[in-house]
Specification:
Shape: elongated
Number of strands: 14
Strand content: 15-25%
Distance between the termini: 31 Å
Bound molecules: zinc ion
Radius of gyration: 28 Å
Order of helices and strands: EEEEEEEEEHEEEHHEEHHH
Strand order of the largest sheet: 6-7-12-11
Structural class: alpha+beta
């Protein structure tokens, strides 16, 4: 899998319009291609008429007649770049037929209207190759790798901006690349928030279990201590004076799970707990446990608000 900042190349391949001895103009596609679909272009080259699944040899594709067919190949990862006709934002997906839903603004529209700007250029070049062959009587060819979808908008300076998700709706399985974390499946329109949330929780738990430094620091950068608020829900923050308590309780949990509750050097160093001595077995009084649950609930609300609403742009 390419890194998000890499330009994702189109696979190789070549389109040729070849004059046959019987006077027909045939086209031929050769080379190293991952996936293709067809777009029927009006005879005057001005309008895109329909998207058509590519078919194998000996099968007849059904598409509007008369029209000129352009083949749009996928990038190396089997995906196609898209621009939403409503919000114009760029994404990549394996879903290219029928109706598409924008992963960012959730507006549905015919898939034809999502064809990316780079691909429109390619389709125009493909139509031109056809027209040139018709007008000059000569064979023409077009390098499919000329279109790369290396759009400037996709090259982001910030790290970790791109999310790849596979839709988990039964029978959908569409794969999509978006900027940001949360988005809708272009085919079925379902949000990826649930799996993204689960992933975030899994990462958090893994980090918690693997921790060998200050656990609280790791909680801070996940966004559970504060929720910055939006139009409907006011800001919320765990009080500063709770932070040492949280640190202590997380360290207590750590030695309960990993050291049978026996105080070790790490616990003394990391918990700032002055009430215990080395090798002592800790106890958690019920009032502390109850208070910890309350704090955890507040942190959970902060996290959930961040998950549900955090992706709304300011
Ligand atoms: Zn959109
Ligand atoms: Zn889906």
């Amino acid at each position: 899998m390419a890194e998000f900042k890499d330009a994702i190349r189109a696979a190789g391949g070549k389109l040729e319009y070849l004059h046959q001895s019987d006077g027909r103009l045939a086209f031929q596609i050769s080379g190293d291609m991952r996936a293709l679909y067809m777009v029927a272009v009006s005879m005057d080259g001005l309008r895109l008429l329909d998207t058509v699944p590519a078919v194998g040899y000996g099968q007849a594709a059904v598409y509007p007649q008369p029209s000129v067919v352009a083949y749009v190949q996928s990038d190396e990862q089997g995906m196609w770049g898209r621009n939403c006709p409503a919000c114009e934002r760029y994404f990549r997906t394996t879903h290219i037929f029928h109706t598409s839903v924008c992963p960012y603004c959730a507006k549905p529209a015919p898939s034809l209207t999502f064809i990316s700007k780079a691909q429109r250029l390619y389709i125009a070049a493909s139509y031109d190759a056809f027209a040139r062959a018709m007008l000059t009587g000569k064979n023409t060819s077009l390098d499919l790798a000329d279109v790369t979808d290396a759009t400037p908008a996709w090259h982001y300076a910030e790290e970790k901006q791109q999310t790849h998700f596979k839709c988990q709706t039964d029978g959908c399985d569409i794969e999509t690349d978006i900027l940001g974390i949360y988005g809708y499946c272009p085919r079925c329109g379902r949000t990826n928030a649930r799996p993204a949330f689960n992933d975030a929780m899994t990462r958090m738990l893994t980090r918690w279990d693997q921790t060998d430094k200050t656990v609280t620091d790791q909680w801070f950068d996940i966004g559970v201590i504060t929720w910055n608020g939006n139009a409907k829900i006011p800001p919320r923050a765990v009080r500063q004076l709770e932070l040492p308590f949280i640190t202590k309780m997380l360290q207590r949990r750590h030695i309960l799970i990993h050291n049978s509750g026996i105080v070790d050097d790490d616990y003394i160093k990391l918990s700032s707990d002055k009430q215990v001595r080395l090798d002592e077995r800790i106890r958690i009084p019920s009032n502390e446990a109850k208070h910890f649950v309350e704090v955890i609930r507040e942190m959970g609300l902060n996290l959930l608000d961040g998950v549900e609403f955090g992706f709304e742009e300011a």
